[in-house]
Amino acid sequence: MNVQQSEQVLLSFARTFSVQERSLDRVFEDLFTGHYPRLVKTLVRLVGDSGQAEELAADTFYRLYHNRPPGTPETLAGWLYRTAINLGLDALRTNARRARREDLAGREALRQDAQGSPLHDLLAEEERLRVRSVLALLKPEYSQALLMTSSGFTCKEMSGVLGMKTDSLYVLLGRARAKFEQEYLKLYRRQQ
C-alpha cells in the first residue's frame, strides 16, 4: 500500500468510522513511514536541532492519530506539514523566550552577587581611592583627559574642552595612560 492509498483509507475512516482498528493502525503506520523522514528533515532545517525535530514530528503524528482531520488525500499531507511547521515555529518562539528569561536571570544573579557583597563594596571603594590618589599625582590635563574618557566623552568633545586638536588629543591620552599605569604600579604593586 502506498502513501496516497494509506491517506485515502485514513480519511475514509475519519468520515465513516468503518475501518477496523487493526487496519487503521496499518494505515497510520504506512503514513508514518512514508512522511516521517521528510517531515523530520523539514523540521531540522526550521529548528536547527535534530532531537527537537524528531520530537516535533512525533507530536505531529500523535495529533494526526488522535484528531483524525477531515479532508482529501492531497490535504492530509499538507495538514501534516502545516501542523509540523506550526509546532516548529511555536518551539522557536518558546526557545527564544526561554533564552531571554535565562539570560535575564543570569545577569540579575551576577549583578546581585557582585553588588550585594560587602566585600565587593569594600574592594570597589578601595580601588576608587587608589585611582583618585594616582590622578592627583598626574598633570591636570592628563587627569582631565582620563576622567573625560572614562565618562564617555567623544574625542571631539574632549578636544573642545581641552582646547587642542584631535590628533594632539590622541597623543595626550596615550601619554596619560602610560603615566597613570606607571604611577599606579609604583604605588600599589607591592601591596597586591
Quick recap of the structure?
The chain has 192 residues and is an all-alpha fold. Helices cover 86% and strands 0% of the residues.
Can you characterise this structure?
With 192 residues, this protein is mainly α. The protein folds into two domains: 98 residues, Orthogonal Bundle (Rna Polymerase Sigma Factor, Chain: A), CATH 1.10.1740; 71 residues, Winged helix-like DNA-binding domain superfamily/Winged helix DNA-binding domain (Arc Repressor Mutant, subunit A, Orthogonal Bundle), CATH 1.10.10.10. Helix content is 86%, strand content 0%. Helix 1 crosses helix 2, helix 2 packs across helix 4 and helix 3 crosses helix 4. The longest helix is centred in the middle third of the chain and has 44 residues. The radius of gyration is 34 Å and the shape is elongated. About 3% of the residues have low confidence.
Instruction: Report the structural category.
Output: mainly alpha
Largest sheet: none
What is the approximate shape? elongated
Estimated helix fraction: over 70%
Domain count, please report it.
2
Q: What is the H-and-E element order?
A: HHHHHHHH
Strand fraction: under 5%
At the fold tier of CATH, the topology name of the largest domain is Rna Polymerase Sigma Factor, Chain: A
Counted beta strands: 0
For this entry, give a set of tags:
Rna Polymerase Sigma Factor, Chain: A, about 85% helix, about 190 residues, mainly alpha, 2 domains, Arc Repressor Mutant, subunit A
